[in-house]
């Protein structure tokens, strides 16, 4: 992990009110050569590299990526579906993704806050519907090709535990990290919060800044 998530405001079960995990989780890839030495990032062909994210409980044993929409429940029932859950109803409770947004990232060759080139996977568009404590599980795979028709999980990394708050208890966004600022300067569409001004800014397509009210 190059950057761990810390907190988020739950986005609920609507489709318009999206609250991104803060700061944006970032995974860094290091590749070993046949001699077990780290390769230079610029010598690695990254075109088929992808990392996917899923949501888990802090114990890293219970998948929390799917949740039951409480608006579709006829009465009290566990929010997270399980094989033992049962309820009498004329309609089936609707299961939806608890982790919403872009859950898969391709590889980016970018300079970090130390001005060094590295291979990164950036998840700046993730939100969580429900409040609670979670971890993110990231799985690195290589897109299948004619030479290698099957995809395998090559590596797994876990984030630290982070907290998702209700709207009333959310303490606010953290200050943008130096790594996030470095990515934004290189054209990555990532929200940047400027200390002491109470405003957030997002990079536009031309590298400029646009004010964003998602604080």
TrEMBL record:
Domain of life: Eukaryota
Protein name (database record): Uncharacterized protein
Native species: Linderina macrospora
Source lineage: Eukaryota, Fungi, Fungi incertae sedis, Zoopagomycota, Kickxellomycotina
